[in-house]
Amino acid sequence: MKLPHIPPFKTKVVEPVYFRTKAERAQKIKEVNYNLFNLHSDWVIIDLMTDSGTGAMSEQQWAEIMLGDESYAGSESYFKLKRSVKEIMGFDFLAPTHQGRAAENILFSAVVKDGDVVPGNAHFDTTKGHIEFRKAEAIDCTIPEAFDTSVYHPFKGNIDLEKLEAVIKEYGRERIPFINITVTCNTVGGQPVALANIKATCQIGQKYGIPIYMDIARYAENAYFIKIREAAYKDWTIAEIVKEMFKDVRVVWMSSKKDGLVNIGGFIALNDEALYEKLGQFTIIYEGFLTYGGMSGRAMGALAVGLKEGIEFDYLNDRVKQVQYLAQKLKDYGIPIQEPVGGHALYIDAKRMLPHIPQAQYPAQLLGVEAYIEGGIRGVEIGTLLADRDPLTGKDRLPKMELLRLAIPRRVYSRNHMDYVAATMANVMARRKEITAGFRITKQAAILRHFTVELETI
Ligand SMILES: Cc1ncc(COP(=O)(O)O)c(C=O)c1O
Known about the structure:
Layout: H1 22-31, E1 46-47, H2 59-67, H3 76-89, E2 93-97, H4 100-111, E3 117-120, H5 125-133, E4 137-140, H6 161-171, E5 179-182, H7 195-208, E6 212-215, H8 219-229, H9 238-246, E7 251-255, E8 266-270, H10 273-286, H11 297-310, H12 313-332, E9 345-349, H13 350-353, H14 363-375, E10 377-378, E11 380-382, H15 384-387, E12 403-407, H16 415-430, E13 439-443, E14 454-457
Helix pairs in contact: 1-14, 2-11, 3-11, 4-5, 4-10, 6-7, 8-9, 12-16, 14-16
C-alpha cells in the first residue's frame, strides 16, 4: 500500500480552541457590527484571516528565543541572522526592521522621489502606499492572464515584459529608481513568478541600467513552484533556485512574518555598501540602531533559524499540498474558487456563490460572515469593502471580483482542520438560497475602511 502523505513535524505545544454554538456566533457577529476584524480571537475556531505572523515556530526557533542577545548594539542574534541571510540569499549587508512595511519605508525613503515611477508585478498594498506617499507612481505590469480566473497559467505572477519595456520607454529610465518583482505575487492570489521571467526582467533592467528590487515575503514558496512547474529546474534544490532567483537582484526586502516562519520581523538585504549606509540613516530615525532595527534579539535569532527551515523541501511540499488539498475539497463540494491556487491562500468567488446578492450589498463580506456563523471560520473580504470609495465621487468602487480569502497559517492546522473548513463552506453552499440579503454600511473611516467598518443587515 502507498503510504499517505503526512506533515514533516509533530505537535509539542498546543493552543486551545474554544467552541461556541452557531446561535452564540450569530449573536456575537451582530454585536461587532458584522466586521470580522472586531472579533476577539477566542471567538474564532479556525482563523484564516492571514498567513502573516500567524505560523507556528519550531523547537529550534524557541531555543533561539532563549538564546536571544538583547544588547542594544552588536547583538550576536543580529550576526546569526546576517549569516543566515548571506548563506541563503547571498547578500552581505542587512538592515533589520520590525516588519515588511517598515523595510519599505526605509528603502523608499532612500531611493524614491516625487515624480518617479516604479513598474512591477501587482505591487502589494503597502508597497504601493509607500510609493504613492512619496508622490511617485506604481505601474502594474503583471501579465493579463493573472486577472482572468478562468485561464490556467502556471506563473500568473509573471511580469509582462513588453509592457515593462513600453513603460521604461514612455517614462524614461531617469524616472525609474528600480523595477519591482514581488515573489510570490500576493495581490493576484499568491501566484508565482517563473525563473525565466525573473531572468528576462533582470536583462531588461541591465539593458536600460535600472536595478531590480525584490519583495520576497514568500520567496521560498515561489522557489517551490519553480521547482514543480518550471521543467528546467526540476532537479535543482530549493536553496539553488533561491540563489538563482536573487543572482541579478540589487536589493531584496522581506516581511519575515511569512516565509521567515516568525511572528514579527522584516529586513532589507543588499550588496551595495553605499546604499546600505544611506539606509542606515533612515533605520536609525524610524526603527532603531543598525544591529536590531525594530526587532528584539530573540526575534532575530528565531528568524535566523526560520529562514533555513522555510526553504526545506519537505516543509514547502507539505504547506503547498495543504492549500491544494483544501482547494480540491472545496471544488468537490461545488464551491467556486480562483484557479490555480497560489502558495498561501485560496479565494472563494462570492459573485458565483451568491449570484443573487447585488455587489452593492457586499457579497464577499456576507459570505465571510456566513462562514463564521456556520463553523467559526474567519476569512477576509477582498471585494467592495476593501476597494473602498472613489476619492472624487465618494461612491463605492465596484471591483471586478468579490472574493473571500482563506489564508492558511504555516504549520498550524492539520488536515482535519481543512476538512472542517471544507464542510463549513459546503454547508453554507447548501443553504445559499436562504441567504437573501447583504449589508449596508452604518459607519466607515475616511481611508482603509474595511478594518473598522460597521455594518447592518438589510
Ligand atoms: C508581498 C508583501 N509585501 C509586503 C507586505 C507587508 O509586510 P508587513 O505586513 O510585514 O508589513 C506584505 C504583507 O502581507 C506582503 O504580502
